[in-house]
Amino acid sequence: MKVQVYAYFHNPAGSICNVAKEWCLELEKHFDVKVHDYSEQNCRFPKMIHLLGEHDSVADVGIYFGYPSYIKTSGNLLAKHKVKIAVFTSETTLSDLEVGQTKSMDLDLLCVPSNYVRCLFNNVVHRNRIMVVNHGVNEKFFECKSAKRNDFTYLYVFQNSQTGGTVERKGFIELLQAFKLLRESHKLTDVKMLIKTTSNIEADIEKLKDANENVEFNIRYLPIEELANLYSSCHAYVNSSRAEGFGITVLEAMAAGIPVVSPIHTGLTEMLSEMNCVSIKYDVRHTTHFRYATNNGEIVKIDPVEIAKSMKYTYDHYQELSKYSEQLRDLVIQKYSWENVLKGAVQWIKEHNM
Questions:
Q1: Which residue spans of the chain are classified as CATH 3.40.50.2000?
Q2: In Å, how far are 24, 170, 196, 214, 217 from 13, measured between CA atoms?
Q3: Domain 140-336, what architecture?
Q4: Per-residue pLDDT reduced to its tens digit, 120-171
Q5: pLDDT digit string (tens) for 185-213?
Q6: What is the rounded distance in angstroms from the CA atom of residue 44 to the CA atom of residue 33?
Q7: Beta strands 278-279 and 236-238: pairing type?
Q8: What secondary structure does DSSP assign to 147-198, as a single string?
Q9: CA-to-CA distance for 64 and 1, rounded, in angstroms?
Q10: 158 pairs with which residues across the strands?
């Protein structure tokens, strides 16, 4: 069976690019896959090069990746195939406009990363045409095993959108405030915070370093093996995000076997519970709206005091939490391998093209 995929593959650090790459490599095990790169730039995934191109004849299935507004409709791409599947890889909340765009797409199947995102589309896409397909975890996270850093280190990973908004949605400022509270109010002077980002905050890095003692910033692009080992070398992962469509970095931390500190809301409920993370209290009564090109909708309020409390708890109970987190790795490997998360989508394609 011929499958034509349309996606971006020019940015190895981009979440959309990475999700589409993993889908393609898994689909290739079952179908004859070709890839059309939206970006029209050089594909920076060596494993993808052999898939680039168009089928000689029109493929039975067309799969389109990205946010709703990212999907290219020019050149009749969206109407080219008998079966049309859109994979919305959104890790943010979505605007009403973007959700409404799906009405005109005439989709046979819409794949979304969480039940939270699924609810956003319930009024515009029939429920039988929506499938939740979680993001999987790269296998390198299951293999990582680095020596821990000398100082107790909290890690936070995020990519800031070039169009703005991510810093606000991710609770970045609240996290820095919480770390100050941890060191000053809770008297923890032997802790560090590592911020891993490939964002457009480079101009602010020196100011942030000067204003935040014991905070380290890593803005280099890291191959997946190095990134996985970076997670493993830290003692705990802190997520201060105020809204997520899914929240892949939390899942990566769980796969790396380190304790997770996070609120449990929006798409994060897909993988987190009071049983597998140290929860951060948030105020559901106070939500704010913000509008940027790729980040739209409600975000909850999280008090830095609550983040600091949960970070302190993790520090005090690290040994037991670390031991339990190591045990959780096997469950994450079993449930969130790419082969496992894509089983339903692969079966759907086979059944609808017999």
A1: 2-136+337-351, 140-336
A2: 17, 17, 12, 26, 17
A3: 3-Layer(aba) Sandwich (3.40)
A4: 888 888 889 999 999 999 999 998 889 999 999 999 998 766 555 577 888 9
A5: 999 989 999 999 876 665 676 777 777 88
A6: 18
A7: unpaired
A8: PPPSSEEEEEEE---TTS-HHHHTTHHHHHHHHHHHHHTS---SEEEEEEE-
A9: 17
A10: 197
